[in-house]
Amino acid sequence: MEDAHVNDDNERIILVGRHETTSYHGLLDPRGPYLKWIAVFFMCFLSFGSYYCYDNPAGLEDVMKDDLKISSSTFTSFYSWYSWPNVVLAAVGGILIDKWLGVARGATLFCGFILVGQIIFGIGGYCRLIWLMNAGRFIFGIGGESLSSAQNAYAVSWFFGKQLNFVFGLQLSFARVGSLVNMNTIHRIYDSLDKDVTGPHRIGATLLIAVSTCLISLVCALILWSLDIRRRKVIQEDNPPDPSDEFHIRDIRHFSASLYSVFIICVFYYVAIFPFIAAAQLLFESKYDLSPAWSNACNSLVYFMSAILSPLLGYAVDKTGRNLYWLMGSITTTIIAHALLAFLFVHPVVPLVLMGISYSILAASLWPMVAFLVPKKMLGTAYGFMQSIQNLGLAVMNIFTGLILDSYGYFMLEIFFIICLEIALLASAFLYVYNSVKNGMLNDSPAVRRAKQELLDGKGPDSSNNAAGASSSPDEDEQKAINT
Predict the structure, then answer these.
(1) If DSSP codes are grouped into helix, strand and coil, which group holds residue 348?
(2) Alpha-carbon gap, residue 346 to 114, rounded angstroms
(3) What is the DSSP string of 317-347?
(4) Reported CATH class of domain 48-231+255-437
(5) Cβ(413)–Cβ(405) under 8 Å?
(6) Which residues contact 148 (CB under 8 A, 6 or more apart)?
(7) Do residues 132 and 148 touch, judged by C-beta distance below 8 A?
(8) Angle in degrees, CA 68, 57, 78, rounded to 5
(9) Distance between CA atoms of 479 and 452, rounded to whole angstroms?
(10) Taking phi first (over 0 means left), then psi (-120 to 50 degrees means alpha), and beta for anything else, what does residue 102 get?
(11) Section 43-70 average pLDDT
(12) Residue 460 pLDDT > 80, yes or no?
């Protein structure tokens, strides 16, 4: 019987080898070293349209308020209407990815929502129908955050264990290229339109031109779908599916305190970034007497720094590990940047460069942590919940941002951002202590992290939560093995 079993295994290997030589070769060979980097190219541009169009209002703040005759609170509501649906739907999107759609179908569907939402937003602006613009941002938001969850799940599924922080940084870099290009082109598109096109018609035409970037994202999603089909065929040939790897919604109850701490950090950190950028143009014009063009250029510095530094810092985090040290350092630096804007008259370039560096560090160190805190079968769900909780915070805080601006001005808004960052810093300190008590992987060096992961892979799928702080700490035998 054993000889028969060996022969069966040999026959399967021969058949797989034949399939490889007849079906896959060259750059598109899933077992080769090149296909994953081709996929990275399209992963990076997957969210280009989403990020470009997300900050269309920020790049048009001055003319949008004048042409549409709206207040600061109505203007910031464009961001709230983006965020509100994702309080629930980003988590739902993550569950759909893990349970039914898969990453490829999900990413394509969500790109479709982005495209339709931006078209409606543009038509609403053209007709000066604020309710229709809000509806467009709502639909756009359904796709935007769920697409980010799909993008993160793509990165982990292709790169888990190697170059993951670098790939996250690279994705963020190209996403921020979308935001950066928006900040430096959208107002120029508005200015370049025929002078006979004025008021709401001019705003609407500008927003509809931006729809072209959403088409780029949709094309990337379709290409990635094709590449992922090729990769998954090889995975199924080499590693037949294990029924225990199937995702069940009830598995959500195993989310750990570490994961919820990551969620809290995500919310309170990004509150001090995105709402700030959305409202900062007029701050630079009023406090520093900058022109609208220079205000937009300064406002884009955070994204510009992120586009340059995110891959480099992601590579540094890959090489050094110690994600929690990087995380706490980035939050502290962001607090300093907002304090400079609140209390001093230092040129805004200085605090914005600091903010761009710290923002890049946080993105490269925070988001990959989720991969160490949940099994792979739950990655879409975990990232979906992270996006949902983040958007709950952004939806509420964008409302507060508009109210604080209208009632108290920019100084009190900066104080509000500093308080939010201090909460994020406290949550990261708790995560550091909790991770140490649970002997988690989050602040290990790469060598120690690999040793723990090899040990856990030998034990089975349920042990991954223990090492990541999701359940209980490893027993004494495990600890001795890790130490040696």
Answers:
(1) coil
(2) 38
(3) HHHH--HHHHHHHHHHHHHHHHHHHHH----
(4) mainly alpha
(5) yes
(6) 47, 50, 90, 383, 387
(7) no
(8) 80
(9) 9
(10) left
(11) 92
(12) no
Q: What is the mean pLDDT of residues 179-207?
A: 90
Tokens 């004048």 -> residue: 66
Task: With both helix axes pointing from N to C terminus, report the angle between 257-270 and 349-366 in degrees, rounded to the nearest 10.
Answer: 160
Both tokens assigned to 122: 């543009």
> What does the radius of gyration of the chain's CA atoms come to, in whole angstroms?
23
User: Do the Cβ atoms of 452 and 444 come closer than 8 Å?
Assistant: yes
The pTM (predicted TM-score) of the whole model is 0.71
Residue of 307 and 415 predicted with greater confidence: 415
On average, the pLDDT of the chain sits at: 83
Whether 261 and 431 have beta carbons less than 8 Å apart is answered as yes
Task: Report pLDDT for 378.
Answer: 86
**Both structure tokens of 348:** 């805004």
Q: Give the Å distances, CA to CA, from 322 to 146, 207, 259, 328.
A: 28, 42, 17, 11
* pLDDT given for residue 286 in this prediction: 82
Say how far apart CA 420 and CA 267 lie, in whole Å: 9
Comparing 5 with 59, the larger pLDDT belongs to 59
| Dihedral, 83, 84, 86, 88 alpha carbons, nearest 10 | 160
- Type of residue numbered 252: I
